[in-house]
Amino acid sequence: ETHIIYAEIDPATAKPVLKRYVCGHDCGVMINPDIVHGMTYGGIAHGIGAALYEKFSYTEDGQLESGTFMDYLLPSAMEIPSVDIVDHCTPSPLTTFGQKGSGEAGYLGAPAAIANAINDALAPLNASIETLPMSQEALFRAISAAGAGPR
Fold first, then answer.
1. Alpha carbon distance 31, 29 (integer Å)
2. What is the pLDDT of residues 67-97, one digit of tens each?
3. How does pLDDT run across 109-135, given as a tens digit for each residue?
């Protein structure tokens, strides 16, 4: 599978925006393309959450701080971009109809591809970030540390 993402970051607010998202995958013969595409979209949404929002946080004595949706952020439909899916079909010789697994196609590549796109967007600001989630707060800190943020 391949994920190609174009991202922009507002240097004043550090808000990341995924402007374009393309996912190419090969799951062999698709018995039901709508289900495969739905699973791919859902996996990508989950990957966006892992890359930009979702984080379990604990106090020093081990108490969960992010136990509600007020504290544990998830992307909404507003943060999920339109996704172009490119289907490639190489039938499997090991299955009756040539199908392969497709449930992981959206999720597995999304966090790494988003991290690369975010760091590409940060490069002109001489900033980078190496941990997930790449939250707006973490991006703001990275931009400020590079001296490129608002003064």
1. 6
2. 998 888 999 999 999 999 999 999 999 999 9
3. 999 999 999 999 999 999 999 999 999
Positive or negative torsion for Cα 106, 107, 113, 117: positive
Is the Cβ–Cβ distance between 98 and 91 less than 8 Å? Answer: yes
| 41-73 per-residue burial string, b: 16 or more CB within 10 A, e: under 16 | bebbbbbbbbbbbbbeeeeeeeeeeeeeeeebb
Whole-angstrom Cα distance, residue 116 to residue 68? 29
Domains of the chain are: 2-145 (3.30.365.10)
Largest Cα separation within the chain, whole Å, is: 63
Other C-beta atoms within 10 Å of 117: how many? 24
Q: For residue 104, what are its two tokens?
A: 């992981």
H runs (alpha helix) in the chain: 33-52, 110-122, 136-145
3-state secondary structure of 27: coil
Chain centroid to CA 31: 27
Q: What angle do CA 53, 107, 73 make, to 5 degrees?
A: 15
